[in-house]
Design brief:
Blueprint lengths: L2 E2 L2 H23 L4 E7 L3 H17 L2 E7 L5 H13 L5 E4 L27 H9 L7 H13 L7 E5 L6 H10 L3 E5 L6 H6 L3 E4 L17 E4 L3 E3 L2 E3 L4 H4 L5 E2 L10 H21 L1
Parallel strand pairs: 1-11, 2-3, 2-4, 5-6, 5-7, 7-8, 8-11
Antiparallel strand pairs: 9-10
Helix pairs in contact: 1-9, 2-9, 5-6, 5-9
The structure holds nicotinamide-adenine-dinucleotide (NAD).
Length: about 290
């Protein structure tokens, strides 16, 4: 059987060091690092994710404040809130839960986030830095994938990586970071003609397509590392984009769903918030 890449355990390991960093920041800054979480409307998954940030953040010694707008909030109201949080010197990081209600234009509205507080890498300013290989806030999901690869694979130089999915939130930024780590990257999407041929030649396959069971056993080279980013509800169960039961016996290592990459996301947002607070401290001390 393959190595099970346990995102929950990796998150716990990281949290121990984040707790120390949070305490140091609190000491030096005279207040806790502060994440503001904006939610518009009552999407149940967004509520769950927001509360998870509040719970974990509080436990690690950060301050996490919810900022709730009604589902029929106007663009002007959201922009005003983002500007207010951007101007507030006691706020280090801002995260807007997505999806936003359909009448609100994403990603145009997210451009009103202060890039210095853009802890989920949502602004074009941050994305431009990522494109250029400059230091930046890596979107939490992508940071989770990179963390799993760092832990299990280490050096990615020369590795063949197939990324299935080319969205602006997962596939594209991930492909750029992998390129930056000197991997050979193939980006696949729903118009890729022979997906299996692309995934079968890869040392590492990352799937972020939103299609349950898309990656089958015959699409994976024996011994390959398989990372499943997908989160899908099927018959009341959460499943990934990988046909886990069939692929696991072929893979060398694989992330489960749930308990894989998704288990790291909240921790990554808090880590980025501590980084933002740390930068503020460094500027103050300069
Ligand atoms: P998206 O719908 O924005 O993009 C999906 C991408 O997959 C597109 O590029 C599309 O071309 C490609 N695709 C769709 N069907 C395909 C197919 N049959 N073959 C090959 N490629 C195909 O989705 P997204 O926001 O990038 O999310 C992808 C998945 O990752 C979803 O299941 C989502 O729930 C999950 N997700 C998880 C997290 C997390 O924290 N763990 C965060 C964001 C997204």
């Amino acid at each position: 059987m393959p190595i099970l890449l346990d995102g929950r355990q990796m998150a716990r390991d990281l949290q121990a060091s984040l707790q120390k960093t949070a305490a140091e920041i609190q000491q030096e800054l005279g207040r806790s690092a502060h994440l503001a979480v904006v939610q518009v409307g009552n999407d149940p998954a967004s509520t769950l994710y927001r509360k998870a940030k509040e719970r974990l953040g509080t436990r690690l010694g950060l301050r996490v404040t919810p900022h709730l707008l009604p589902a029929d909030a106007t663009e002007a109201e959201l922009v005003a809130l983002l500007r207010r949080l951007g101007a507030d010197p006691t706020v280090d990081g801002i995260l807007v839960e997505q999806p936003l209600p359909p009448h609100l234009r994403t990603p145009a509205l997210l451009q009103h986030l202060d890039p210095a507080k853009d802890v989920d890498g949502s602004t074009w300013a941050t994305q431009g830095r990522l494109f250029a290989g400059a230091s930046c806030f890596v979107p939490a999901t992508v940071a989770g994938v990179m963390h799993v690869l760092e832990q299990h694979v280490g050096d990615l130089t020369g590795k063949d990586v197939a990324v299935v999915g080319a969205s602006n939130v997962v596939g594209k930024p991930l492909a750029l970071l992998l390129l930056g780590a000197q991997a050979t990257v193939t980006v696949c999407h729903k118009y890729t003609v022979n997906l299996a041929a692309q995934t079968r030649q890869a040392d590492i396959v990352v799937v972020a397509a939103g299609v349950p069971g898309l990656l089958k056993a015959d699409m994976v080279r024996p011994g390959a590392v398989v990372i499943d980013v997908g989160i899908n509800e099927v018959n009341g169960e959460t499943v990934g984009d990988v046909d886990f039961a069939a692929v696991a016996p072929v893979a060398g290592a694989i992330t489960p769903v749930p308990g894989g990459v998704g288990a790291l996301t909240t921790t990554m947002i808090l880590q980025n918030t501590l980084t933002a607070a740390g930068r503020k401290l460094a500027r103050a001390n300069a």
